[in-house]
Amino acid sequence: MARKKIALIGAGNIGGTLAHLAAIKELGDIVLFDVVEGVPQGKALDLAQSGPVEGFDARLKGTNDYADIAGADVIIVTAGVPRKPGMSRDDLLGINLKVMKAVGEGIAANAPDAFVICITNPLDAMVWALREFSGLPHNKVVGMAGVLDSARFRHFLAEEFDVSVQDVTAFVLGGHGDTMVPVVEYSTVAGIPIPDLVKMGWSTQEKIDAIVQRTRSGGGEIVALLKTGSAYYAPATSAIEMAEAYLKDKKRVLPCAAYLDGKYGVDGLYVGVPVVIGAGGVERIVEIALNDQAKVNFQVSVDAVKELLVACKGIDSSL
Ligand code: TXD
């Protein structure tokens, strides 16, 4: 059986980390694409030279030519400009929209059968635009945010409860940004919902509220610390989890920015919801019952995504 092919569009901080993880996990051969000359080639060569030590077999190629992504099984898109301190995700809209157009056209021409994971911010708008520009089926284009946001939530909860991160599951819905909705009732330690853990005296409502808030601004916290870029280790590993679910037909249930055509009362938008990812791409949208507060928060999040799409359409009349 021939190896799978993974194309990474954008060879920056996340792109390089994605390539490293995909190689170590032997997910397939890897193509790193970027508009900057030399960087994808240099990273690919450096990573390939780690192979003999690490013991992985994967071909790594850096390129500035879209023809090299031909036949890719999975494409992960990080191309664009990252958030700088003081810059909101939405400031990135104009610049990254143009990038999505180039990337969408490159994918359509060279790898129209791929499963495409978009990471570029502002995520919920960029994944929608990338889908529009590429013309791929909606179930083959998905956005990565929820896995990262829920990983942040899980990390903070595990610290608070002093238990293994492995035993903490967390649910995060809605758009990627300040309006995301961490759903506390569906977040558990070994199946015990957080509200029960609060009743058991494991934490207080105030502390949980503070964790929810910290999760919402989790990206900004790292931007403020790094000063010259945004998070990349956790975003990369989150996207790899989604890629693996597709490549290995694992049918993982993961929170992703998925296209909704009626579910959750949303039509024609990409919003973060739990989905099943397997060989069919997004095989199912999991529609969970939300309590009244979560419904209100989810709607705020949906409205924020809608606003972004209006802005996108204002910038590019072909959308
Ligand atoms: O949860 C999430 N979705 C995110 C999103 C979490 C963290 C960061 N998130 C966003 O990912 C971030 O706001 C950025 O929009 C992307 C990529 O972040 P990264 O940290 O990898 O940014 P870099 O290091 O600046 O890399 C971007 C690369 C860089 O090498 C550029 O030269 C390249 O993108 N680039 C392009 N590649 C291909 N094609 C075009 N047009 C292009 N333009 C820039």
Describe the secondary structure blueprint for this structure.
Blueprint: E1 5-9, H1 13-24, E2 29-33, H2 39-54, E3 60-63, E4 74-77, H3 93-110, E5 115-118, H4 123-134, E6 141-143, H5 146-161, E7 168-173, E8 181-189, E9 192-193, H6 194-199, H7 205-216, H8 218-226, H9 233-247, E10 252-261, E11 267-278, E12 281-285, H10 292-315
Parallel strand pairs: 1-2, 1-4, 2-3, 4-5, 5-6
Antiparallel strand pairs: 7-8, 8-9, 10-11, 11-12
Helix pairs in contact: 1-2, 1-9, 3-4, 4-10, 5-7
The protein binds 1,4,5,6-tetrahydronicotinamide adenine dinucleotide.
Active site: 176
InterPro entries: L-lactate/malate_DH, Lactate/malate_DH_C, Lactate/malate_DH_N, Lactate_DH/Glyco_Ohase_4_C, Malate_DH_type3, NAD(P)-bd_dom_sf
Protein name: Malate dehydrogenase
What can you see in these coordinates?
The structure is a single chain. Helix 4 links the parallel strand 5 and strand 6. By secondary structure, this protein is α/β, with parallel strands linked by helices. It starts with a strand and ends with a helix. The mean pLDDT is 94. It folds into 2 domains: 140 residues, NAD(P)-binding Rossmann-like Domain (Rossmann fold), CATH 3.40.50; 169 residues, Alpha-Beta Complex (L-2-Hydroxyisocaproate Dehydrogenase, Chain A, domain 2), CATH 3.90.110.10. The radius of gyration is 19 Å and the shape is globular.
